[in-house]
Design goal:
YaeB-like fold; alpha+beta; four-stranded mixed β-sheet; 101 residues; 35% helix
Length: 101
């Protein structure tokens, strides 16, 4: 199954990586590695992660947390692809991504 990251989610990942790197050199790379790892897990087994019950308007959205950081990958499984809607921090505007896709 193909994995596609929406441009706004790509931007969120870039901004988060840059912010972590500005806090301490090397942490941005660790963030990027953790993100790549969870994206690989999602692609290999998309049903592994639970549905995001906080989003009733997006009943098929799933949330994958990744190690070492408070961020989550929000995604949906469609017929032939997995669409990453957001790379979100849980304490920042938790519902903003629901209109994407």
């Amino acid at each position: 199954m193909n994995l596609r990251v929406l441009p706004p989610a790509q931007e969120e990942a870039r901004e988060a990586g840059e912010w972590y790197e500005s806090q301490q050199p090397g942490i941005g790379a660790q963030f990027n590695d953790a993100l790549e790892s969870v994206l690989t897990e999602i692609e290999a087994s998309p049903l592994r992660f639970p549905k995001d019950l906080s989003a009733p308007s997006r009943p098929d959205a799933r949330r994958a947390k990744f190690d070492g950081f408070p961020h989550s990958v929000i995604y949906e499984i469609h017929e032939s692809e997995i669409i990453v809607l957001a790379i979100m921090h849980p304490s920042r505007r938790p519902a903003y991504w629901r209109r994407r896709g």
